[in-house]
């Protein structure tokens, strides 16, 4: 320690305290053990935090990968790559939904082979839902959905395709047991009671429905020539000369006559009936007054002004006076 440190009271107190602590640490076994234990605990906490964050990042990456799966092959590969994990069970739920939808949509067709393939998909979906429901203990929502979907698949298989109505009721009861105090449980119990009361009716319905659809009524393939309808023979040419069709001649159409003239007010004369069409056609066209006059007469008569009013009265010529013949004298 330098002279300045010795003259400084604060420095001397700190240095003295550290020296005393180090001497006691050398002599005390309990204090060394305590400090060593605290150091180990601190390292353990830091390691746990590191691995926990790493695990959370892996789990988040699995959920992201699961959301991007868009085919049955990818779902199966994901399930095989992560067995026993929650994400794998959710992927099995997705796969069961796809199989159940494909199987249900392929049942209402008149093709025996395709219907059998659809029933196989429904059976595979039923078995998958039952396995997932047993593996999802503690996940009440997913477990209830798995039991309910298994019951629906079992109901589709009724009527001679491996379905049992007692198994349907059992699966519905198990779905209700996942959430006993919920509306979902009440609906599942009501549906199970309905199946128990109407077991024979429902089994007979599915049996008759499947019997009608099991017939192979395939639609015939269309003909190669689209202009010829299916089922009709091709058109054959006519033999010999076809007969000529003769139609009677159409009479000529006569034009209608002029409309009748209506009498004006104050005139006592009645309107004459229109002349027949034959007379109208044969009658010559009337000539104008100017055309009827000779050229010499046209030059003698002065042109009347256009604004001169015309009178409706006819001009009367004076009649010549005739004298009686003289009487003969008698001899």
Description of the structure:
The chain is mainly alpha-helical and 331 residues long. Among the domains are: 3-67; 79-213, Serine Threonine Protein Phosphatase 5, Tetratricopeptide repeat (Alpha Horseshoe), CATH 1.25.40. Helices cover 58% and strands 0% of the residues. The chain has 13 helices and no strands. The radius of gyration is 60 Å and the shape is elongated. Residues 290-302 and 304-309 have low confidence and may be disordered.
Could you give the topology of this structure?
Layout: H1 3-7, H2 9-27, H3 29-67, H4 72-81, H5 86-105, H6 112-135, H7 140-156, H8 165-177, H9 183-197, H10 199-213, H11 277-282, H12 289-292, H13 295-300
Helix pairs in contact: 4-5, 5-6, 5-7, 6-7, 7-8, 8-9
Defining key terms:
331 residues; mainly alpha; Serine Threonine Protein Phosphatase 5, Tetratricopeptide repeat; 13 helices; 0% strand; elongated
